[in-house]
Write a structure and sequence with these properties.
The structure holds two protein chains of two kinds. By secondary structure, chain A is an all-alpha fold. Chain A contains 16 helices and two strands. Chain A folds into two domains: 184 residues, no CATH class; 234 residues, MetI-like fold (Orthogonal Bundle). A two-stranded antiparallel sheet of chain A has the order 1-2. The longest helix of chain A has 41 residues. Chain B is mainly alpha-helical. Chain B has two domains: 121 residues, no CATH class; 218 residues, MetI-like fold (Orthogonal Bundle), CATH 1.10.3720. A three-stranded antiparallel beta sheet of chain B has the order 2-1-3, covered by helices on one side. The chains are: A mainly alpha, B mainly alpha. Chain B: This is Phosphate transport system permease protein PstA.
């Protein structure tokens, strides 16, 4: 239905294009060179006016239709059902109504529910048809208005270009809307969470057991939401990853920039880039399939007990993933050092190694640090490797051989499956998400600023 | 001022033993640094090699499937001719197993023997008979997949020489299977089911069709949103935007969005698209929308780079003969920049294809036994399917997971190859 509506709007818009163009063609035949815009712009003007407003309207209608109908349905339920019902109960009613409406009946529904289901079906049909009628009449009205405005002297080109401008500005604004959307939605849910769990408990508590009581009378089911072990686990894994990636990445960058010839560079660089292009779920499986058992076996041979989901396996594999980040950003930083500094160093008789360590590295340090910060933000926000290879229980430890959990693991495990948005368990995921977003944002802004300032220095 | 005697410094003896030793040390340091660099590159490439090798070693066996040729008899007693779909195909299969092993007499042993065939055998036979109703009352031979333990046994993953209590198949079962092998009924053809079956609880039946279709729909939505929006935004920022605070803010925003962890986009999708707008969970539509938000920064950045590479002389020539600014861009700059934009788009979509975490949060990790019919149906995607299989305990799923990863990597390599081809075919140096 909706698909056909989109097609109908597109067809109308196409018709408008031809109507506009042929009208302008008649102008040209009658008035010759006096006509301001070329016929094709008259057509484009009409097409934009017929197509765009209707499309925007339909998209917004679709986005809000279900929400509005849900509200109306809840409002239409008899008072006796709404009295004292919690939001989750209300949403249960809603899904029952929808099940009944779509014919998935398991038990005989109560008369209120079946009445509501009937209302639901009726309202949905009304909403659908209303959308079709409104969208098509908007299109028709726009076509009529566009046609009345057309005249030999009409500035069709300017009008069309103005419409294009608006579309382009709105597209550029999407980036801001997305950022705002992230901030608003995370903050909103996090505030809901902090109403249930005080912030000081979340930020300073040492015990993370995100359970909620399934029954009212359950003993010891309140759960604990002290996120410190989760944060330390994240930092531990990120630190291991950086310990693996920094030396390997930095030394490969030095070799590629200073020692390798063009041909070798041309082969090795793309190969290193492949490491960055491998999906993270693949790394996760690699960690589980190969690395973790290998580490356990090595530990077993030395007589050390290593947990099957040790921080070492997850962090090590994550390190492999971020090698190319560090190497390519250090590569850029080293190349940005002016040739004159290199030449000066060589002229003094320094060897290549001395030039690298005494001249190039200090000069490129800000760029390299910026790259490392970006890599750190990547490591903190990385999800799939840790979801598959790291642990679920939050232990407060600095021992890389034990299993620790991370912010991203907790977010995924808390939100997988069906979720209701009224308990601290699900909401805590959004609080963790907010912390993750803020921390990575700070790291990114800092890194980008360092890199930019450094680049300006040598330009 | 005190008087200093300006004696010439003693000339340094470059060939003295100390100088030689020092030079040797310095050269050694030089060689060491070069060695460190070489070693780290080899380590990185070696790790990539191990990664791929371990996937190939575990995954290659999933590209073939052990099948057993069995003679089934669609007895009219079990399968009514007027409505073959309602037949008792369980009985058909168990009769066929009995016919395979006429020596078995007791029911328990027969049940063990029928475990050699996949659980899906009943469905396969049923579908075959429904498709060919003329088979009712006839005997026909069908190749049905062997169940997972015997599939592994046949492929050599389960070692027949291990003591009985340490493997998943008993000696009796191996004997039955070997008798089938001796009769030449066992074959291992290419596993088309891996590509044409949807997900299943049984490894021997599980395939990627649902995931591939789901990924296709999600990428389609992602492309339809991020391609036009990305190009429009890039044109505006590159060609029209005045240099002011607002455009600065947009630029900083785009750079930061490109570095936001993907899971945060998943949270956004869950909180806004699913909670506020009430779009269905697990739908490729929502997945594609979330992925498009993630690819948008990439799209904008590559499009701007492509626009920037078009030399000003082209713009000036067009402006010179009276084109408006919009005409310059739509008629001249954009067509010339299109190969670059398309290359960037394909690379962006390849990234989106491998993205997992946000799809988990919006529920695209459901267990579904049929491919989605449209963008509103529940679906999985390739990477989430890999995640689901990686979590499954059956041995057969380990090799399926590796095989699925190889398929995913194949898609990624294909997309990147197309991008590289486009770049080399159409790139113009000005």
């Amino acid at each position: 239905m909706t698909g056909y509506l989109f097609l109908a709007i597109l067809a109308l818009s196409l018709i408008a294009f031809y109507v506009g163009r042929s009208t302008a063609g008649r102008f040209v035949a009658a008035h010759g060179a006096e006509v301001h815009s070329r016929p094709i712009y008259h057509g484009a003007f009409a097409a934009v006016w017929v197509g765009l407003p209707a499309l925007v309207l339909v998209v917004f209608w679709l986005l809000f239709q279900d929400g509005v109908i849900d509200r109306l349905l809840i409002a239409s339920l008899p008072e006796s059902m709404k009295q004292g019902a919690s939001p989750s109960q209300l949403s249960l009613y809603l899904s029952e109504i929808k099940n009944v409406a779509s014919g998935r009946i398991f038990t005989e529904p109560s008369p209120e529910i079946s009445a509501a289901a009937e209302r639901y079906q009726r309202w949905q049909a009304i909403a659908q048809w209303a959308m079709v009628v409104v969208a098509l009449s908007v299109s028709a009205l726009a076509l009529y208005m566009a046609r009345t405005r057309m005249a030999p002297q009409f500035r069709a080109r300017q009008n069309f270009e103005r419409a294009l401008d608006i579309v382009m500005i709105l597209s550029a604004a999407v980036a801001i809307i997305v950022t705002l959307g992230i901030i608003v939605s995370l903050t909103y849910e996090a505030i809901q969470f902090f109403r249930l769990v005080p912030p000081h408990e979340f930020f300073f508590g040492l015990n993370w057991e995100p359970q909620i009581p399934i029954r009212e009378d359950q003993v010891a089911g309140t759960g604990a939401f002290g996120a410190v072990p989760v944060f330390t686990g994240t930092l531990l894994i990120a630190a291991i990853a950086l310990l693996v990636a920094i030396p390997v990445g930095l030394f490969s960058a030095i070799y590629l920039v200073e020692f390798a010839d063009e041909r070798v560079r041309g082969i090795i660089k793309p190969v290193l880039e492949i490491l960055a292009g491998v999906p993270t779920v693949v790394y996760g499986f690699f960690a589980v399939l190969t690395v973790a058992p290998a580490i356990r076996q090595a530990g077993g041979m030395m007589g050390i007990a290593i947990s099957p989901n040790s921080a070492l396996a997850a962090g090590g594999v994550m390190g492999i993933m971020i090698i190319p980040f560090i190497s390519s950003l250090s590569d850029d930083a080293l190349r940005a050092v002016p040739q004159s500094m290199r030449d000066g160093s060589f002229a003094m008789g320094a060897t290549k190694a001395e030039t690298v360590t005494r001249v190039l590295l200090p000069a490129a340090l800000p760029g390299i640090v910026g790259g490392i910060l970006l890599a750190a933000s990547r490591a903190i926000g990385e999800t799939m490797i840790v979801v598959m290879a790291a642990g679920l229980t939050a232990t407060l430890t600095a021992n890389p051989l034990e299993g620790v959990t991370t912010v991203t693991v907790q977010i995924v495990t808390l939100l997988i499956g069906d979720t209701a948005f009224d308990n601290p368990k699900t909401l805590s995921a959004f609080a963790l998400g907010l912390v993750l977003f803020v921390v990575t944002l700070c790291l990114n802004v800092l890194a980008l600023r360092i890199v930019r300032r450094y680049r300006e220095k040598y330009e | 001022m005190s008087e200093t005697t300006a004696t010439a410094p003693k000339p340094f003896d470059w060939s003295s033993p100390e100088a030689m030793a020092k030079r040797k040390r310095r050269y050694a340091a030089d060689r060491r640094l070069r060695l460190y660099g070489l070693v780290s590159i080899l380590v990185a490439i070696g790790l990539l090699g191990i990664l791929i090798a371990s996937l190939v070693v575990t995954g290659y066996s999933a590209f073939v499937q052990t099948k057993i040729a069995v003679e089934f008899t669609a007895d009219p007693e079990n399968v009514p001719a007027e409505d073959p779909g309602a037949g008792n195909f369980r009985a058909v299969v168990s009769n066929a197993v009995q016919a395979l092993f006429p020596e078995i007499e007791n029911r328990r042993e027969l049940r063990t023997a029928s475990k050699i065939l996949s659980n899906g055998a009943t469905t396969i036979v049923r579908n075959h008979v429904i498709a060919n109703p003329g088979l009712v009352g006839q005997t026909f031979t069908l190749e049905v997949p062997a169940s997972d333990p015997f599939d592994q046994l046949n492929k050599g993953v389960i070692d027949r020489n291990l003591p009985e209590d340490r493997r998943r198949v008993s000696d009796a079962e191996i004997e039955l299977f070997e008798s089938l092998e001796a009769r030449g009924l066992v074959s291992t053809p290419f596993n088309w089911g891996l590509f044409f079956n949807a997900d299943s609880r049984f490894p021997e039946l599980a395939g990627l069709a649902g995931a591939v279709v789901g990924s296709f729909y999600a990428l389609l939505v992602c492309f339809l949103i991020s391609f036009p929006v990305g190009i429009a935004a890039a044109i505006y920022l590159e060609e029209f935007a005045p240099k002011n605070r607002w455009t600065d803010l947009v630029e900083v925003n785009i750079n930061n969005l490109a570095a936001v962890p993907s899971i945060v986009f998943g949270l956004l999708g869950l909180a806004v698209f699913i909670q506020v707008f009430g779009l269905p969970r697990s739908a490729p539509l929502v997945g594609g929308m979330v992925l498009s938000l993630m690819t948008l920064p990439t799209m904008i950045i590559v499009t701007r780079a492509a626009l920037k590479s078009i030399p000003p002389s082209i713009r000036e020539a067009a402006l010179g003969i009276g084109a408006s600014k919009h005409e310059v861009i739509l008629h001249h700059v954009l067509p010339l920049a299109l190969p670059g934009i398309l290359t960037g788009t394909i690379i962006g979509l390849a990234q989106a294809l491998g993205e997992t975490a946000p799809l988990l949060l919006i529920g695209m990790n459901a267990f579904l036994t049929s491919p989605p019919g449209g963008i509103m149906d529940p679906a999985t995607a390739l990477p989430t399917q890999i995640f689901i299989w990686a979590d499954s305990p059956e041995r057969g799923f380990a090799s399926r997971t590796s095989a699925a990863i190889l398929v995913l990597l194949g898609f990624l390599i294909f997309m990147n190859a197309v991008a590289i081809y486009l770049r080399q075919r159409f790139e113009r140096r000005w």
